[in-house]
Amino acid sequence: MKRVVEALEMVTEWIMALMLAVMVALVFGNVVLRYGFNSGIVAAEELARLMFVWLVFLGATLALRRHQHLGLDIVQARLPARVRRACAIISHLLMIYALWLFIQGSWFQLLIGMETRSTVLSFPMAFYAAAGFFPAIAMALTILANLWKILSGDATAHIPGNGDPHGVTAPQGGAIAEH
């Protein structure tokens, strides 16, 4: 299972890199054409906007998976282990609830978007809603998996405040050091 997840992460990274490259080429090419030749690629903005939305949600999914979202572990690190674990369970339940609301709203927008078309390329506007729907499902599954680890007492569970799982800490001087 771990290999499948790692392979999916790698594929997602490649897709994100490709989308970023296409976005840069489209936007830069459009600027050059607009100012240099008084013309442009009509669909460039629409495609770049769609890819940007997907890029944001895919990136958020990877950041969640790798525990790289902003967080304040200062308070949690000072709590006793049982309280820290309880805080992690409560926060996971709240995140699952928020993602459920997001998935539900994205689903409704997906259904509405199936009947609405984009201005230039005439693709279904559901493509925008899908950018939130599918990554939110992946995020919910990631959080559920970690919640299960926390509840079952698995040592590999990520509990904020327990220290960095990658072994990187900031010593007194403020510089980053590896253990």
From TrEMBL:
Transmembrane helix keyword on record: yes
One of the GO biological process terms: C4-dicarboxylate transport
InterPro entries in alphabetical order: DctQ, TRAP_DctQ
Single GO molecular function: transmembrane transporter activity
Subcellular location: Cell inner membrane
Membrane topology reported for the UniProt record: Multi-pass membrane protein
TM helices/strands, residue ranges: 12-35, 47-65, 86-107, 127-148
One cellular component (GO) term of this entry: plasma membrane
Keywords recorded for this protein, A-Z: Cell inner membrane, Cell membrane, Membrane, Plasmid, Transmembrane, Transmembrane helix, Transport
Keyword Calcium in annotation: no
UniProt domain Tripartite ATP-independent periplasmic transporters DctQ component: residue ranges: 23-151
Main location: membrane
Assembly and oligomerization: The complex comprises the extracytoplasmic solute receptor protein and the two transmembrane proteins.
Function: Part of the tripartite ATP-independent periplasmic (TRAP) transport system.
Family: Belongs to the TRAP transporter small permease family.
PANTHER family per UniProt: 2,3-DIKETO-L-GULONATE TRAP TRANSPORTER SMALL PERMEASE PROTEIN YIAM
Name of the protein in question: TRAP transporter small permease protein
Organism for this UniProt entry: Azospirillum argentinense
